Amino acid sequence: MPLSPEQQSEIDAQRAETRPTRRVVSEGMEGHLYTAYPVLDHGFVRVVDYMGDDAAITQAARVSYGKGTKSVQNDEGLIRYLMRHWHSTPFEMCEVKLHVKLPVFVARQWIRHRTANVNEYSARYSILDREFYIPAPEHLAAQSVVNNQGRGEALEGEEAERVLRYLRDDAMRAYDHYEEMIGQDGQQGLARELARMNLPANIYTQWYWKVDLHNLLHFLRLRADAHAQYEIRVYAEELCKIVADWVPFAYKAFEDYRMGGATLSSGALDCVRRMIKGEEVTQENSGMSKGEWREFEAALKG
């Protein structure tokens, strides 16, 4: 389970506390504070703290003395303009601090986004829990035959059962040896910083991850995409729900211009203009490679 009864009790106590503040608050985000949302079999995401809201973005853009709000319509229009024209700095005025529990192999993908402040649970000082990510059977897939970093069809029957058995047995055996190496009666015990190297990449770790909105949206654009690996995508999808409540104007603009939009090269844009004029455009007369043409057709067809 993602949280023990003691951990849930600690979170409940945090949620029960309220304090008066002069800070700008987002009512949508207030509802998410401290709540741990389950992800995968033992993971979770929870908001520990945040700064700013939609008005903080427009305040920074206008460099105003107050909240920066002229009207709701003006604020939404300005945010959409900023997003549309890639003016990123105002979005950096909002920040969020997250507590995330995730498998180590997902953390190693996640950490490639080097635009955040991270503090990870230390296995040099503490003993990791016996918790491993074991995929649900429907997520056990073969290697894709068309994509070197993707999955193909799901494994079935005896093969799927064998793979699941290996994953469970190997993880448990590695943890048994980890515990034995750390200390046994009459033995000195191996240092924790060395014993941890025998643990598999599907063991769970935890960290605090603090990031500004601009870089968080970049993370979501890549990791909430349908082509992202499932195990990190489900974390991104949970974060999308939180961000949509935190900064609804900014998130809607992000959905429209980043997640749902498409970037066209000058050559592709020229092809669109030719099509509008009634000209028949094919891959052969487009000036694009076959790969570019496939992506161009996919963008037009939606």
UniProtKB/TrEMBL annotation:
GO process annotations (BP): dTMP biosynthetic process; dTTP biosynthetic process; methylation
Cofactor(s) listed in the protein's UniProt record: FAD
Example of a GO MF term: NADPH binding
Region (Disordered): 1-23
List of residues binding FAD: T89, R112, H113, R114, E120, D212, L213, H214, H218
Alphabetized UniProt keyword annotations: FAD, Flavoprotein, Methyltransferase, NADP, Nucleotide biosynthesis, Transferase
Biased composition (Polar residues): 1-11
Gene3D superfamilies listed in its UniProt record: 3.30.1360.170
Pathways per UniProt: Pyrimidine metabolism; dTTP biosynthesis
UniProt keyword annotation of Cytoplasm present: no
Cofactor binding remark: Binds 4 FAD per tetramer. Each FAD binding site is formed by three monomers.
Alphabetical list of InterPro entries matching this protein: Thymidylate_synthase_ThyX (IPR003669), Thymidylate_synthase_ThyX_sf (IPR036098)
Catalysed conversion reaction: dUMP + (6R)-5,10-methylene-5,6,7,8-tetrahydrofolate + NADPH + H(+) = dTMP + (6S)-5,6,7,8-tetrahydrofolate + NADP(+)
NCBIfam families xref list: thyX
Membership in a protein family: Belongs to the thymidylate synthase ThyX family.
Function recorded in the entry: Catalyzes the reductive methylation of 2'-deoxyuridine-5'-monophosphate (dUMP) to 2'-deoxythymidine-5'-monophosphate (dTMP) while utilizing 5,10-methylenetetrahydrofolate (mTHF) as the methyl donor, and NADPH and FADH(2) as the reductant.
Matching HAMAP family: ThyX
Protein name: Flavin-dependent thymidylate synthase
Gene this protein is translated from: thyX
